[in-house]
Each structure stands twice: as C-alpha cells, then as structure tokens.
C-alpha cells in the first residue's frame, strides 16, 4: 500500500523525469555501490571463516561441554590435533539428509501451494497477497503472505506427534544436530551459487540486478534483487522467513525435550528462552506483511549473505542458548528469572512499538497519531533507476524522535535477556548479544549510507533533527 501511495504521489505531482539535477546531489538509489577494501576484506573473511565459526561453536558443545576455550587450549598445547576433533565429529548421515529434505520440501509446499487462510478469521492479521516496496527499478512485487499459517501447521503437527502419534522423538533435532548442519550447509551453498548463476543468465528482473564487478562481493551480497521461480516462489521471502525461522521454535522445543529426557525436568531458564524467542518468532510471522518493508526485503540483494545465512547461521547460532542449556541446565532463582522476563518483554515492547510506529506512519502517509499527537516529519525525495522522482517522509516523532534506530535498541535488550537466562558460567551463550550488537550497529551504518545516497540533503536534515542512532545522548 505504501508503495502504491508513494507512486501515486509521484504521479500526482507530475515530477517524472526531472531528475537530472537531483541525481548530481544524491546519487542514484540502489546502484551507487563501490566495493571498498574494508567491505572486500570483511567479505573474504566471512566467506572463509563463517562456516568454521558455526562448526566451532557446535563442536564445542558436542565435545567440550560448550567451553569455547578448551578446544583452543587442547590444540595449542598439542593435547589434541585437528584430526582428533574432526574424527570425533558426526558425519552426514542418510537419516539427517532424509529429515532435512523432508523438512525443506514440506516448507516449500506450505509456502507455494497453500494460500493464506489465517487473514480470513484472525482479526488484525494481514496475510494473503500483499505488495512489497518499490524496487530501485521501479517494480512493485506481490508476495503470498502465509508464514503464520505455515508456522501454525508445522507446530500443530509437531505437538500432535509428540503427544499422540510418536512417529519420531521430539529430541530428533538435537540428536541429529551436527549431521543436519552438513545438510544446511549444502543447501546454503547450493542456493547461493544457484542465485549467482541465475543473476547472470536468467534473472527475474534484469533491471534490478546489481553487478559490482567484484566476484566475491557479488557472490556474497547477491546480484538479483528479488530472484523468483514462477510467479510466487520468492527466494528472499522463503529463505529469510521459512526453513530457518519456522525451525527456530522447533529447535528450542527439541532442546527442551532433550533436557527433559536427560534430567527429568525442564529448567526455568529453558522455559524463558523458549518463551522469549517464541514471542520474537511469532511476532515475525504475525507481522510478515510489515517485514516486506524491512531492509532484508526492501534493500538487500539475494546472495550468500542471505542464502547461506538463513540456512546455517540463523538456525545454528540464534539457538545457542537452548543448546547450551541442554549441556548446562540452569535453574534461576525467582528474582533473576523475573528480571530477565521483564527485560525481555520491555525489549520486545520497544522493538514492536518502534516498528509499529514507522509502519503506521508510512501506511497512512503521516495521517495518524503517534503518542496521541500528529507526527512530525521531514519531507524528502529520491530518484529511481528509470528516472522517476518519488516523495517520502522521515518521521521525527515517537521512538523515531529519540533515536534513528530505536527498534534495534529494543531488539538488543531482548537479545541480552536470552543470554542472561543462561547464567554466567560460560561465554558461549553470550555470543548472540555480541553478534547482534555488531550486526545491528553495522546495519545502522549500512542503512544510513544507503539512505544518505537515496535522500541526499534531506537525509542530512533528518540526522540533524534526530542526532543519535541507538541510544539518545550516547550513540
Ligand atoms: P528499519 O525497520 O529500521 O528500516 C529502516 C528503513 O526505514 C530505512 O532504510 C528507511 O527506508 C526507513 N526509515 C528510516 N528512518 C525512518 C523514519 N524516521 N521514518 C520513516 N521511515 C524511516 O530497519 P530493518 O529493516 O533493519 O529492521 C526491521 C526490524 O528487524 C528491526 O526491529 C530490527 O531490530 C529487526 N532485525 C532483526 C534481525 C535479526 O537477525 N534478529 C536482523 C535485522 C533486523 P526508506 O528507504 O523506506 O525510507
């Protein structure tokens, strides 16, 4: 809808094709990319080491009770060789390959073949066919929003199996965790490589492809903006929002089941991790239509960063707290547990309200109330690849007046709560907050770089009005 409105305004004001003077000052949105040495070094580092980092974390739990230092000490002191660790690592199995193929196929079927019915009976839920934002080439894609339904069906089947059918044990995910890691890697690399080839030879929309001329950059950050197969199979929405995120809550449930099997109880820390992360996942699916307007879908191209990241990084590293608690069951005192719950809920509230305020503001084109008042904003304009001039608004009210990315601040508070639920014995569960801080700070900078090139001097007016990024008066 917002995309439509933006387009309508552009037409109404009859400013088409008057962009030449504007281009000079604000670059061409979505295409002004140079691969600097720092980006290239980071990309090469990630391509080489990200799979090893994931392996190291998971292996540490499997062989060293989640200690991150012991494997290194063993190797440095010559106590063990790399081959000793590798030889103890479970390999790919037919069983894991079967489970994984079935899982991905099932999610494809739910995504492609079952149109959304949730929006027909859930008040307030936006599902079914929805429009994304305007792409740099001026395209508005349509998406089948049925993630909530996929999540519900999957979880109903999971609970039906655990309670009645007993076709497989709920610990199945934990029991095959490392063999499944190899399957996830195979899919992650396969889909990223396919996306690269597709970008060169049969792109869905050639005008929305971005070639930087650097092979590694293109492989990592993607060439195609919205690769699709057929009318509805959208790579970005599927890989971002299905196999990994639907699995997130199942993985946590499987870890809880393993705790129950090993210790005959599920600790309150495990329940907290399941509840807080479950809320985050459910929020994602409830707001899937809103998600079409986030950076992942609106601005990122589809390459290894999203393809491999969604298949491997997300399900394996976002679930480290639950995995850790299988090896170290932590029973928190009531005050500690309540403190964490409060921090998690407050973080969630800030995250959701900030996102909601922007969504409401953009959907109504500023004709709404934020904290009981008409929102204040800065009018801005930008130019798409085909030369059309568009108008937009940057809100300076509500949480968006406190900081330019207060939604990230809420997200970070929630992330910290998951980590704190695991106590203070090991650093492994704290990886998530460290990673999220780096990810979201980098995202802030990346987004602002893009917005600056998109809005030019209007963006500078906005940053003068809202000078802080994450924390008022601090950063
Ligand atoms: P935002 O939702 O903050 O979107 C940024 C975009 O919003 C900008 O590019 C700009 O787009 C527009 N915008 C910026 N400032 C304003 C303003 N003042 N008024 C109106 N519009 C504005 O970022 P993300 O897409 O990164 O994040 C969405 C959520 O997802 C966040 O809450 C984040 O925490 C979460 N997230 C979680 C991750 C995880 O792994 N758990 C990873 C990434 C995000 P435009 O071009 O339209 O002007």
UniProtKB/TrEMBL annotation:
<feature type="transmembrane region" description="Helical">
    <location>
        <begin position="302"/>
        <end position="320"/>
    </location>
</feature>
<dbReference type="InterPro" id="IPR001171">
    <property type="entry name" value="ERG24_DHCR-like"/>
</dbReference>
<keyword id="KW-0756">Sterol biosynthesis</keyword>
<keyword id="KW-1207">Sterol metabolism</keyword>
<comment type="similarity">
    <text>Belongs to the ERG4/ERG24 family.</text>
</comment>
<keyword id="KW-0521">NADP</keyword>
<comment type="pathway">
    <text>Steroid biosynthesis; cholesterol biosynthesis.</text>
</comment>
<feature type="transmembrane region" description="Helical">
    <location>
        <begin position="415"/>
        <end position="440"/>
    </location>
</feature>
<feature type="region of interest" description="Disordered">
    <location>
        <begin position="1"/>
        <end position="23"/>
    </location>
</feature>
<keyword id="KW-0256">Endoplasmic reticulum</keyword>
<dbReference type="GO" id="GO:0047598">
    <property type="term" value="F:7-dehydrocholesterol reductase activity"/>
</dbReference>
<keyword id="KW-0153">Cholesterol metabolism</keyword>
<dbReference type="GO" id="GO:0016132">
    <property type="term" value="P:brassinosteroid biosynthetic process"/>
</dbReference>
<keyword id="KW-1133">Transmembrane helix</keyword>
<dbReference type="GO" id="GO:0005789">
    <property type="term" value="C:endoplasmic reticulum membrane"/>
</dbReference>
<feature type="transmembrane region" description="Helical">
    <location>
        <begin position="148"/>
        <end position="168"/>
    </location>
</feature>
<feature type="transmembrane region" description="Helical">
    <location>
        <begin position="92"/>
        <end position="114"/>
    </location>
</feature>
<dbReference type="InterPro" id="IPR018083">
    <property type="entry name" value="Sterol_reductase_CS"/>
</dbReference>
<dbReference type="GO" id="GO:0006695">
    <property type="term" value="P:cholesterol biosynthetic process"/>
</dbReference>
<protein>
    <recommendedName>
        <fullName>7-dehydrocholesterol reductase</fullName>
        <ecNumber>1.3.1.21</ecNumber>
    </recommendedName>
</protein>
<feature type="compositionally biased region" description="Basic and acidic residues">
    <location>
        <begin position="1"/>
        <end position="12"/>
    </location>
</feature>
<keyword id="KW-0444">Lipid biosynthesis</keyword>
<dbReference type="Pfam" id="PF01222">
    <property type="entry name" value="ERG4_ERG24"/>
</dbReference>
<comment type="function">
    <text>Catalyzes the last step of the cholesterol synthesis pathway, which transforms cholesta-5,7-dien-3beta-ol (7-dehydrocholesterol,7-DHC) into cholesterol by reducing the C7-C8 double bond of its sterol core. Can also metabolize cholesta-5,7,24-trien-3beta-ol (7-dehydrodemosterol, 7-DHD) to desmosterol, which is then metabolized by the Delta(24)-sterol reductase (DHCR24) to cholesterol.</text>
</comment>
<keyword id="KW-0812">Transmembrane</keyword>
<keyword id="KW-0152">Cholesterol biosynthesis</keyword>
<keyword id="KW-0752">Steroid biosynthesis</keyword>
<keyword id="KW-0472">Membrane</keyword>
<feature type="transmembrane region" description="Helical">
    <location>
        <begin position="37"/>
        <end position="58"/>
    </location>
</feature>
<feature type="transmembrane region" description="Helical">
    <location>
        <begin position="332"/>
        <end position="351"/>
    </location>
</feature>
<keyword id="KW-0753">Steroid metabolism</keyword>
<keyword id="KW-0560">Oxidoreductase</keyword>
<feature type="transmembrane region" description="Helical">
    <location>
        <begin position="180"/>
        <end position="201"/>
    </location>
</feature>
<keyword id="KW-0443">Lipid metabolism</keyword>
């Amino acid at each position: 809808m917002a995309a439509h409105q933006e387009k309508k305004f552009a037409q109404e004001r009859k400013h088409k094709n008057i962009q030449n003077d504007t281009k000079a000052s604000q670059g061409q949105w979505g295409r002004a990319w140079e691969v600097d040495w720092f980006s290239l070094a980071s990309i090469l580092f990630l391509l080489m080491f990200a799979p090893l980092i994931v392996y190291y974390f998971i292996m540490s739990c499997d062989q060293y009770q989640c200690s991150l230092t012991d494997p290194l000490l063993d190797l440095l002191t010559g106590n063990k060789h790399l081959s000793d660790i590798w030889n103890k690592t479970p390999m790919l199995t037919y069983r894991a390959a079967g489970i994984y193929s079935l899982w991905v196929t099932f999610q494809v079927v739910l995504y492609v073949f079952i149109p959304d019915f949730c929006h027909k009976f859930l008040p307030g839920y936006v599902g079914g066919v929805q429009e994304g934002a305007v792409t740099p080439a001026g395209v508005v894609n349509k998406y089948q929003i049925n993630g909530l339904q996929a999540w519900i069906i999957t979880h109903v089947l999971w609970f039906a199996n655990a309670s009645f059918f007993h076709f497989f044990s709920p610990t199945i995910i934990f029991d095959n965790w490392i063999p499944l890691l190899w399957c996830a890697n195979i899919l992650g690399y396969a889909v990223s490589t396919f996306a690269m080839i597709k970008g060169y030879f049969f792109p869905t929309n050639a005008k929305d492809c971005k070639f930087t001329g650097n092979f590694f950059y293109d492989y990592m950050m993607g060439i195609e903006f919205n690769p699709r197969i057929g009318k509805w199979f959208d790579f970005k929405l599927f890989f971002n929002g299905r196999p990994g995120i639907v699995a997130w809550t199942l993985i946590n449930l499987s870890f809880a089941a393993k705790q129950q099997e090993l210790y005959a109880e599920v600790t309150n820390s495990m329940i907290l991790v399941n509840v807080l992360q479950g809320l985050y996942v459910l929020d994602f699916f409830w707001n899937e239509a809103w998600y079409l307007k986030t950076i992942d879908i609106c601005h990122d191209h589809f390459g290894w960063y999203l393809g491999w990241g969604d298949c491997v990084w997300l399900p394996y590293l976002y679930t480290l707290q639950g995995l850790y608690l299988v090896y170290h069951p932590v029973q928190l005192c009531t005050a500690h547990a309540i403190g964490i719950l409060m921090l998690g809920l407050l973080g969630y509230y800030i995250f959701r309200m900030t996102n909601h305020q922007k969504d409401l503001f953009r959907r109504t084109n500023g004709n709404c109330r934020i904290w009981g008042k008409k929102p204040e904003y800065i009018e801005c304009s930008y130019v798409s690849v085909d030369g059309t001039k568009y108008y937009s608004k940057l809100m300076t009210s509500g949480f968006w007046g406190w900081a330019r990315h207060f939604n990230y601040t809420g997200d970070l508070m929630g992330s910290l709560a998951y980590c704190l639920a695991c106590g203070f014995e090991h650093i492994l569960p704290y990886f998530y907050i460290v990673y999220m801080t780096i990810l979201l700070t980098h995202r802030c900078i990346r987004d602002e770089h893009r917005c600056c090139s998109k809005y030019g001097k209007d963006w500078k007016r906005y940053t003068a009005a809202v000078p802080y990024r994450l924390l008022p008066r601090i950063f």
